[in-house]
């Protein structure tokens, strides 16, 4: 168990609908792993399953293990999970405007993160540490006394980052941390996230639908669609030689390299949960689909590098 | 902050002025002359004329109004046409009694509503939450006087645990004071508590859906501590509004409950004034009740600002 995070056979259901099926995912020590896919692919639910904070009625099954925690996270009770959250495992959410308590000073919200887990000796130490954390996200110490509404979205997201990193977690999960931000501040926040995890040797699971961001932040990437991991591998490999037809479509649509591909998009939309086709979940949108695609494609490759497609793209086409 | 304070104070003063005119005008247009009303139909015309002169009722209404208002501002409520006694000290004494009652009722309401509403919200899908909801629905439908009579029947008549009625000032006999306060406070507070519970429930439900509560959980707070530290203040903002409105209801409810429990408060004073045809006394008591309600609303407004930093003008 050298991995920081090890997810095996994660399945998430709500009543009779399956939202995430059989996801395997590992993050090594200090590794930065991207989780990409269109909206509605099940990325957030995967992250929330790890954290044990799924919405009401949504249930996770499978196995989630985290380094430094001697119990299984799936199904662990609140008492145990509350010791893991914010200590070994922290998360930055998508929406900075609503993530902070509007009636509490920002400094107290950061200090609280350390006081909850007693990682500092007392209030004074917690406040001193909070000031230092603010400095690390390039905010002045006066920010301690500010209320969230006095700060911009980018500043608030830096606060959320500061409090997530307060206890040097083994793993930081960021769920679309810059999606809601102005383009002008996105780069700064990304830079602070990477610096923050590197300084602490924390591992990072980075969720986004922006492939360019993955390319700059992550070393390895998993592509999710229809609640499944359809392809995974080193970023360079997956982005230059995609095998799964969904990954291929995503890359073509993202205009990562060439301008001619600007207008290429994947035909159709992501179906609502529970309405994906049987067999390959992508087959109703895939130009390469044949009859065999109505049976579920099996995984080709190793656990960390591979894909699940009956008619994968030729290795040479994009190289 | 200062701006808001000035603005709210202006609104308060304006409302006070308008309501004083309304109260005065209402009493003035009531058919019959106050002196005649005070003395009764059998009084001689001379006696009535004498009383009118004595109390200045023969002067123009505007003069009378400003005289009355000036008195109120100085804390002089005038002299009763009937008993010839100063009204101010009576109101002052009675007001303290009613204040105890209202505060105790409020405490009961809060003690009931805060935990019950929170549990109902936290367990809104479970049997315990639904059961509480049903009980509170029932509570809402019970009028205060009925609750009072039921309480008397059970705790005073049947069980004999508490005195059926009466009032003892706290300074005189604290134990007796509390014993006698229990049932009136319950009959006032339980009903309001049932109403308030539903507001607390929806406020807490709202807060439970907030992102910052998820952030709190992600930090490592368990559900209840997360709600306590990050939810209470946020949920309090809408609840305080209702609380302000309920204080007005409690004041009115106190009038009735004071009757049921034979308590010498403002309510009894008002009803005594009505049955003794003591018009100035009635006018003064009504005005005091109005002032109390307006002041409460004013304080509620300031409380918002204390609770929600986003409302502090100039903090941006
Ligand atoms: N509480 C829920 N109840 C029912 N369906 C849900 C719930 N939360 C998410 N879903 C559905 O699960 C699917 C995956 O959601 P999500 O993980 O948020 O996707 P992503 O983060 O990749 O955009 C979506 O179709 C979404 O509508
Ligand atoms: S399995 Fe078939 S349908 Fe699915 S992506 Fe591959 S070719 Fe397309
Ligand atoms: Mg998402």
UniProtKB/TrEMBL annotation, chain A:
Localisation per UniProt entry: Cell membrane
GO CC annotation, single: plasma membrane
UniProt topology in membrane: Peripheral membrane protein
GO biological process: peptide transport
Record carries keyword DNA repair: no
Entry-linked InterPro entries: AAA+_ATPase, ABC_Ni/Peptide_Import, ABC_transporter-like_ATP-bd, ABC_transporter-like_CS, Oligopep_ABC_C, P-loop_NTPase
SUPFAM superfamilies: P-loop containing nucleoside triphosphate hydrolases
A GO molecular-function descriptor: ATP binding
PROSITE patterns per UniProt: ABC_TRANSPORTER_1, ABC_TRANSPORTER_2
Keywords, comma-separated and alphabetical: ATP-binding, Cell membrane, Membrane, Nucleotide-binding, Transport
The ABC transporter domain, residue ranges: 5-251
Pfam families: ABC_tran, oligo_HPY
Primary localization: membrane
Family: Belongs to the ABC transporter superfamily.
Protein name: Oligopeptide/dipeptide ABC transporter ATP-binding protein
TrEMBL record, chain B:
Residue spans crossing the bilayer: 12-30, 99-122, 134-161, 181-200, 235-257, 285-307
Subcellular location: Cell membrane
Main location per the UniProt record: membrane
Residues in ABC transmembrane type-1 domain copies: 95-304
Gene Ontology CC terms: plasma membrane
UniProt superkingdom: Bacteria
Keywords for this protein: Cell membrane, Membrane, Transmembrane, Transmembrane helix, Transport
Keyword Manganese included in the entry's annotation: no
A Gene Ontology molecular function term of the record: dipeptide transmembrane transporter activity
InterPro entries (alphabetical): BPD_transp_1_N, MetI-like, MetI-like_sf
Record membrane topology: Multi-pass membrane protein
Keyword Transport: yes
Family of this protein: Belongs to the binding-protein-dependent transport system permease family.
Protein name, UniProt field: Peptide/nickel transport system permease protein
Organism, as annotated: Kribbella antiqua
